[in-house]
Specification:
heterotrimer, A alpha+beta, B alpha+beta, C alpha+beta, A: alpha+beta, Ubiquitin-like (UB roll), DNA polymerase, domain 1, 2 domains, 5 helices, C: alpha+beta, Aldehyde Oxidoreductase, domain 4, Aldehyde Oxidoreductase, domain 3, 3 domains, five-stranded mixed beta sheet, disordered N terminus
């Protein structure tokens, strides 16, 4: 058993976790933050992606014990003061989700991507999201959604593309 | 999805980790990025009783050039290395190679030391490290020793590191004028590991290739040098015909794996194709 | 769309009302559900593909602290095996369905053998390692054709040669004559490989039993909660339907895999009753791959005959369809009716004959996966037509055009025992796709590049498919054991809000949004005032669920019909209150007013309040504005289209690059273009993935070699192109919305589109066919002769 203190979405939690607890289990089972999902057991699908100390990680491959004193942002912490994050808005406007199961991880990966590259090409968006699998959208509208958010975060006028 | 129970211990320094290793013996495993070990543990293919966490330790960090050598702390992540100006300037192939590993989440966690110590048959860095003729510094309770790249990879998932040793530093040459190095990879569509990866480093002097090191990963049980290929290139002018002749020898000096993803025959053919690509790029750099 | 509506919602690409919760992490998927006192199940699965269970020792597992109980197959003999609801109609079916757990023999790797119930999922998983099972391995067969050959291992006593059913359709003698006398005959063995549906959310069940009322509640990740209730109560447990409530929480993708009844539903329910505590089971991905249903798995020999000027005269097909170790819920119907009856595709083929031999193999069960039979059919016909064009040296677009069913011949009977194709006009979709892709120029570019040693390929696929399978009477004749109508209740709240409850439910399709658009227009009320409720058998009328691209054509129509009943009644009531003629009432802006006197009006809320009180009703009227429809359509709908792809293959490595993907889909009238495009994108992605990446592989011992997402390649974003989507619109005459369905069209049109392009690119190397997926290694070999 390990005692950890973790800041999650700006709020500090001190918890006892079994040593083998994965971060995703800690978030979902102990903190009831169920927006972070589990889609595979080999670190391929990215449904579990969260941001730890500024970097996106797969929370299914991260030990909770290792996150002592870390700052974690999950999908639940992205909207600020009731305003959707531009990525959330982009996914909604551009129909970047269908069943929505991959969406939290996809958005958190895109968040990391746009922090590193605020003006990506479509190809860079596609490569930047290689660690996230979506079975519904074929990614076409996910690329549009990320570009919408990127433009908005750069301060540009944006609107969803016509269909 | 749920690993067998284990005890987690955080080490704050190499010295502390070495003590823990001694204390827990064979049942302990070191974990850095954890992206090979933890998935194996979740599938219960690996069940260590103690995990010694060496991620983020200050004395495994650092990227520095000392004269003709670039030294990278074993705990540096792929992402840190891929985006390091020092690495890009001193030995760009290392940055380019780690920038292709897995996905951004893997690169945010995975470490250079972990990749080399694990010796996965399909890892990317192993081939690059071999081609560069690098060395690692291994620390143990008895002090430290250096292991040359050519001696590091023993067999599938097995290196020359002793169970009481920690891979602490990775050293590769700073590429000089007249030198070039490149890595070319055929990626598995699902795992994104190398089905075939070829790394090459060449030195050109007065229009003649004076040295060449070529290594292959993915195609066989461990990363391995390609002596015949190297020998064929050295002494040539490195033109298209010379690359073709050398690439045709790539893959002569190794055993192959075949599986549902790629047959031995295809892997052998791709070793030659990707050897040519790596050699061409390395030669172009060397001439620049 | 009604003329009274002032702000039509139909046709508008509005964003989805499903999304706010999903983009903020507030979705409620199965694994997010937590109940008081909940226990956790872990399943021990067979490591053998075929073995006799000699003994199971669970003592050590049961003794592990935190373990509540351990159960094996013999413990659950008081409930029935799972039902199969769709044997092939009119033929002898040798039926074998799975139990919740294997009892004496395991027949595929991943079959459940024991279940551990523990206080948490960690302990449950640990306990699995403490169970000892003694197996006696038996011989294994995994190939659907080899399973029928003499000496093959036998899976079930009542299925000689492992045959489930030998099914046929069409005109055998006429076809034999046509093929024998033809100017040109092309033949090919065509394999439609086994696939894994891979919804990003795996499957699972949570069951709770209330001993005071003898009632179960089952939360399960399902596309058809009412059907689950029907099958589990009537066929497995033998209890009244009222004793089970089924709730599908947010469902993280289905693609067919979540239509079916599964062992975990049964053992979670049974154990929750036994223990008096809720039981939760959620699959790991590796369990989903090993144990939930797979798709496709056809081995087909096909011959197509024709004239030298490109007229098709006959089509003869023989298919071995692997259905796995047992029959899943609708497996035989998928391999027969949904495949064999549409194998002529968009062509007028005078002589056609098909045999399907469905077989048992030591593999995971095979059932509907996106498209369900129709992708296999369209792949087959579109590949062999391309093969025919190549044989003649004729342009594949021209061969298609010469054989299309003419628009004057609809409704069209294809001679295979299907109901007539409802409507179609195939040439305009082909023409539009050719124009959009710039076909003539592309062929020139292809020739230029070939001269330079570069290999461009252009692939065409003209498809037709079957959506909203109905009517029930016809489906029953096909062996379908239930209904295929859909329900919708429309009720007006006293607030004026419209509450629609339906048996259809969204798991990505956006039908909550689409349904609200339809009802808003139909009633002339604001879109936001229409609430769509679904996914819970308590509070929704019985309905068959969401699959087979049926939700809009069948469920949406049920809604329209209920709304129209509401309107008729509201007209009568408003007219009564306003002392006007019911024929003069118009609906707009949430009001019912008298034509020509807009000040004389009542809001829906006012009428609803009046109706709910029920005082001073007109003669013969019942209280309440509440209408239900169980809509059973007169026919299926038949969407169609043409897809064209452009690929380049690189002979040195065998790599393929998809450079363009142009789709012209005719899905009838379109309610929400943004959602329809999304459905097509995702559908195309899955067909493209079959063509290029996916293949579920068993070795000869029945071990699944693609058991994780490290081995089974569903594409990531860097592996797919942008899609260029457009439409022709041929409304369906079957339903008042004129809609056809869009959920599967993309998948049904795309695999052969890519394969035809790859094979076209490789034609200079003499390549005429290649089995999917077109991996770099296969292409590399092909370029070497």
């Amino acid at each position: 058993m390990a005692r950890i203190t973790v800041t999650v979405n700006g709020k500090s939690h001190t918890s006892d976790v079994e040593d083998r607890t994965l971060l995703v289990h800690y978030l979902r089972e102990q903190l009831n933050l169920t927006g972070t999902h589990i889609g595979c057991d080999t670190s391929q699908c990215g449904a579990c992606v969260v941001v730890v100390d500024g970097n996106s990680v797969k929370s299914c491959t991260t030990l909770a014990a290792r996150c002592d004193h870390a700052s974690v942002t999950t999908i639940e912490g992205l909207a600020q003061d009731g305003n959707l994050h531009p990525l959330q808005e982009g996914f909604w406007e551009c129909h970047g989700l269908q069943c929505g199961f991959c969406t939290p991880g996809m958005i958190m990966s895109a968040y990391d991507l746009l922090q590193q590259n605020p003006n990506p090409s479509d190809d860079e968006v596609r490569h930047g999201l290689e660690g996230n699998l979506c079975r519904c959208t074929g990614y076409h509208n996910i690329v549009r959604a990320v570009q919408y958010a990127a433009a908005k975060m750069r301060g540009e006028e944006v609107s969803a593309p016509n269909v | 999805m749920i690993p067998a129970a284990f005890q987690y211990v955080k080490a704050n320094s190499v010295a502390e980790a070495l003590v823990l290793l001694q204390q827990h013996g064979e049942d302990a495993k070191l974990v850095a990025g954890g992206h090979s070990l933890i998935p194996a543990m979740k599938l219960r293919l690996s069940q260590p009783s103690v995990l010694i966490d060496i991620a983020g330790m200050a004395d495994l960090k650092g990227i520095a050039v000392n004269g003709a050598e670039l030294t990278i702390g074993a705990g540096e992540t792929y992402h840190a290395i891929a985006t390091s100006a020092t690495v890009k300037n001193a030995c760009g192939v290392v940055a380019a190679c780690v920038g292709q590993i897995g996905d951004i989440q893997v690169r945010n966690c995975g470490t250079i030391g972990g990749a080399l110590a694990h010796s996965d048959p399909a890892a990317d860095l192993t081939a690059v490290f071999l081609a560069l003729g690098g060395k690692v510094t291994a620390q143990s309770a008895n002090g430290s020793r250096q292991i040359a790249a050519d001696d590091l990879f023993v067999s599938m998932l097995t290196t020359a590191l002793d169970s009481g040793e920690i891979l602490a530093k990775v050293t590769v040459p700073v590429l000089q004028k007249g030198q070039g190095a490149a890595y070319a990879k055929l990626k598995h569509p699902a795992s994104r590991y190398a089905i075939v990866g070829v790394a090459a480093m060449v030195t050109i002097s007065n229009g003649v290739v004076t040295a060449a090191r070529v290594a292959v990963t993915g195609a066989g049980p461990q990363a391995v040098r390609q002596a015949s290929c190297e020998k064929t290139l050295v002494g040539s002018n490195g033109d298209a015909a010379a690359v073709k002749a050398a690439a045709a020898k790539a893959g002569d000096d190794m055993d192959y794996l075949g599986d549902i993803h790629a047959s031995e025959e295809y892997r052998r053919a791709m070793v030659q194709v990707y050897a040519a690509r790596a050699l061409n790029e390395a030669l172009a750099q060397a001439r620049a | 769309m009604t003329s009274e509506t002032t702000t039509p919602m139909i046709g508008r690409a509005i964003k989805r009302r499903e999304d706010p919760k999903l983009i903020t992490g507030q979705g409620n998927f199965l694994d997010d559900v937590k109940l008081n006192g909940m226990t956790h199940a872990a399943v021990l699965r067979s490591p053998y593909a075929h073995a006799r269970i000699l003994s199971i020792d669970t003592q050590k597992a049961a003794a592990l602290p935190g373990v509540v109980a351990v159960f094996v197959g013999k413990d659950l003999l008081d409930v029935n095996p799972l039902p199969c609801a769709w044997p092939a109609g009119g033929f002898k079916n040798n039926m074998n369905t799975p139990r919740a757990m294997a009892v004496d023999v395991v027949r595929f790797v991943g079959e459940a053998v024991a279940v551990v119930i523990a206080e948490d999922r960690f302990i449950a998983r640990d306990a699995l390692d403490l169970i000892d099972v003694d197996y006696e391995p038996l011989a294994v067969v995994v190939d659907p054709e080899k399973a029928t050959q003499p000496g093959a291992p036998q899976l079930h006593e009542n299925a000689p040669n492992n045959v489930v059913v030998e099914w046929s359709a069409g005109n055998r003698e006429g076809t034999n004559r046509a093929v024998a006398s033809a100017e040109v005959v092309v033949k090919e063995r065509i394999i439609n490989q086994r696939l894994m549906a891979t919804p990003m959310e795996t499957r699972g069940s949570i069951a709770r039993y209330e001993s005071s009322t003898n009632e179960f509640t089952l939360w399960t990740s399902s596309q058809a909660p009412h059907v689950m209730r029907l099958l589990l109560t009537a066929f497995v447990f033998g209890i009244p339907e009222t004793k089970l409530r089924v709730i599908a929480p947010n469902v993280g993708g289905g693609f067919g895999q979540k239509i079916f009844v599964y062992p975990d539903m049964v053992f979670c329910m049974w154990i929750s009753r036994k223990l008096g505590r809720p039981v939760k089971f959620v699959e790991d991905r590796s369990e989903n791959f090993k144990s939930s249903t797979h798709g496709r798995d056809h081995v087909t020999d096909v011959e197509l005959s024709g004239t030298r000027d490109g007229k098709i005269t006959g089509l003869r097909v023989k298919t071995y369809a692997g259905l796995g170790a047992y029959l899943s819920t609708i497996a035989p119907g998928v391999a027969t009716t949904l495949y064999g009856r549409i194998v002529t595709g968009v062509y007028k083929i005078p002589n056609v004959s098909i045999d399907v031999i469905a077989t048992y193999t030591n593999t995971a069960m095979v059932d509907a996966y996106r498209g369900a039979g129709r992708p296999e059919a369209s792949y087959l016909i579109e590949r062999i037509v391309d093969r025919f064009a190549a044989e003649l040296g004729m342009d594949p677009a021209e061969v298609r055009r010469r054989n299309f069913i003419p628009p004057t011949e609809f409704p069209y009977d294809n001679g295979l025992g299907l109901l007539p194709y409802d409507s179609g006009n195939y040439a305009p979709a082909l023409d539009k796709a050719l124009a959009n892709v710039g076909y003539a120029d592309l062929r020139k570019e292809q020739a230029t590049l070939r001269a330079q040693g570069r290999y461009l390929g252009i692939g065409i696929s003209s498809y037709v498919e079957i959506c909203g399978v109905a009517p029930t009477a016809w489906a029953n004749g096909q062996g379908w054991g239930a209904g295929l109508w859909e329900s919708a209740n429309v009720r007006i709240h006293l607030t004026g809000q419209v509450v629609v409850t339906t048996g259809s439910l969204p798991h990505g399709q956006g039908v909550e949004t689409t349904f609200a658009q339809i009802v808003a227009d139909e009633l002339g009320v604001p879109y936001d005032s229409v609430l769509i409720e679904h996914s819970d058998t308590a509070g929704t009328p019985f309905g068959y669920g969401t699959y087979g691209s049926r939700s809009l054509a069948v469920g949406g129509t049920a809604m329209v019909k209920s709304a129209r009943k509401i309107k008729e009644k509201a007209k009568r009531l408003a007219a009564h209150l306003l002392e006007a003629n019911p024929e003069d009432m118009i609906f707009a802006d949430g009001k019912i007013s008298v034509k020509g006197s807009p000040d004389k009006s009542k809001t829906f809320g006012e009428i609803a309040l009046y109706a709910s009180v029920g005082a001073s009703m007109p003669e013969g009227e019942e209280p309440f504005l509440d209408e239900t429809t169980y809509y059973d359509p007169p026919n299926c709908t038949f969407p169609f289209g043409t897809h064209i792809s452009v690929v380049e293959v690189f002979p040195d490595t065998g790599a393929v690059e998809v450079k363009r993907y142009v789709a012209v889909d005719d899905v009838g009238n379109i309610i929400n273009p943004r959602i329809v495009h999304g459905q097509l994108h995702g559908g195309i992605a899955q067909g493209m993935a079959q063509a290029l990446y996916e293949n579920a592989v068993y070795d000869d011992n029945g071990q699944l070699l693609t058991g994780t997402l490290m081995d089974y390649a569903i594409p990531n974003a860097s592996m797919l192109p942008d899609f260029e989507i457009s439409h022709t619109v041929t409304p369906s005459p079957v339903n008042p919305l004129g809609v056809k369905g869009a959920g599967e069209a993309g998948t049904i049109g795309s695999a052969q589109c890519i394969m035809n392009a790859v094979i076209d690119a490789l034609s200079p190397f003499g390549v005429r066919h290649m089995q999917m997926p077109a991996t770099p290694e296969k292409i590399w070999h092909a370029t070497r002769g």
